[in-house]
Amino acid sequence: MRSRRIDISMESSRFKVLGEFLKSRRERLQPEQAGIPNSFGRRRTPGLRREEVAILAGVSVTYYTWLEQGREVAASKEVIESIGRALQLSPDERLHLLQLWSSEKPDVPPPGTDSVNSEWQDIIDQVAYPAFIANDRTEVLAWNRAACEIITDFQSMSDQERVLIRIFFVNPYFRNHILNWGEFASNSVAVFRSYYDRHTGDAWFRDTVERLAEECEEFGTLWRLHDIQQKKASRFILNHRAGELAFEINTFVRLNGNTDLHFCIYTPVTGTPTKHKLKEFLEAALPLMTATLVLPQTVVVIIY
């Protein structure tokens, strides 16, 4: 059987992460997409050749090769942006490339914020929809009772188990009950990869990725794509005891100035019966909570 182990030895510094990202985007881009329909020679690797990217970006082949190899070479913002255009990066990918290129990272917090203010727990408890606070590691630090009833029983888990990227990939319940699993899994890995690259050198991320890739082949496959996505609203469709529930997932970040924390709320998708089903289920499961709470008409949403 082919090993699922991921070799991330290249990803130990900002320069190496940048090089690995450039390589993944180059291999994704086909010659025809880049306007090179009649390229000569047999291609032994997918995507563009390094020299083709260099020509499109207006830089020397040696210079681009050094960047992709992770060498510590100086590059101006104009050059990096030119390479991004040559590789036809998405807006999220261009932002990620610039973040990897910049040596100044004032917004990157110390890794692994492991607690939240008690006042935030009070706020979450007043939200009628499933809500929680997580960090860049996707460790869930605070949650309300609705989250335990609809998503998973966070209360019964240890701190080490309460990691969303692991829960959604390893727990068989979610593999079988998230109806849009493929889309959700792809988005989750792309967002987590942006956190991983943001915290270059954090051993926790390295160990988590290696372990999860060994345990879940789908995660390893998605990780090797090196896709990047900034956190944005997404759909979460769950086959639950209450019936099929469709949520819009959005995320508030920079809680009290801490960019490592994300306030997440699962809000029923408008036009679906989710709001009614959720209200009935929570009234039966959480009578004390819903006796004093009225489900709002609109809520700004967010997720992990």
List keywords for this structure.
disordered C terminus; elongated; alpha+beta; 44% helix; 434 Repressor (Amino-terminal Domain); 304 residues; 2 domains; Beta-Lactamase
The amount of beta strand, in percent, is: 5-15%
Q: How would you spell out the order of helices and strands?
A: HHHHHHEEHHHHHHEEEHH
Return the structural class: alpha+beta
Unreliable segments of 5+ consecutive residues? 8-12, 288-304
Which whole number gives the mean pLDDT?
84
Strand order of the largest sheet: 2-1-5-4-3
Protein name: Transcriptional regulator
Domain HTH cro/C1-type: 47-94
Organism: Paenibacillus helianthi
What does this structure look like?
It is elongated and about 70 Å long. It has helices at 14-28, 50-57, 61-68, 77-86, 91-101, 118-125, 145-150, 164-170, 172-177, 181-198, 203-215, 217-224, 274-285, 287-290, and strands at residues 131-135, 140-143, 234-240, 243-255, 258-268. Strands 2-1-5-4-3 form a five-stranded antiparallel beta sheet, sandwiched between helices. The chain folds into two domains: 14-101, lambda repressor-like DNA-binding domains (434 Repressor (Amino-terminal Domain), Orthogonal Bundle), CATH 1.10.260; 118-290, Beta-Lactamase. Helices cover 44% and strands 13% of the residues. The chain has 14 helices and five strands. The chain has 304 residues and is of the alpha+beta class.
Helix and strand topology:
Blueprint: H1 14-28, H2 50-57, H3 61-68, H4 77-86, H5 91-101, H6 118-125, E1 131-135, E2 140-143, H7 145-150, H8 164-170, H9 172-177, H10 181-198, H11 203-215, H12 217-224, E3 234-240, E4 243-255, E5 258-268, H13 274-285, H14 287-290
Helix pairs in contact: 2-3, 2-4, 4-5, 11-12
